[in-house]
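Table S2 (text version). Query chain:
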Amino acid sequence: LRIGIWEILLNDGVPDSVDPAAVRSLLRGLPGVADVHDLHVWAMGTSHIALTAHLVTDTADPGALLQEAEEELHEHFEIRHVTLQLETPAYAQNCALRPGLGCQA
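Corresponding structure-token output:
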């Protein structure tokens, strides 16, 4: 089976069932999260949704934050493939200053 590049790109968009602003709001509302940036949501085929994001936090328990984030994303948006990068406020500042390669706000 041969798949064209346009078919691949069409399947990688944000699913209609997911509102990125609502996802950002949910993540920002988690205890210990000061900000969210570089948020990306896309469909992985017809039944899986993926997400990557940077969370700015100074939490003492990163494992608990990651677990809560994954559970909330699954419960509210059916997002099951989650990759989160935790950043301290100082690191997030450096990320934003990288010319041409900085994180997207």
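Notes on Table S2: Residues 1-11 have pLDDT under 50 and may be disordered. The helical segments are 5-11, 20-28, 62-77, 89-97.
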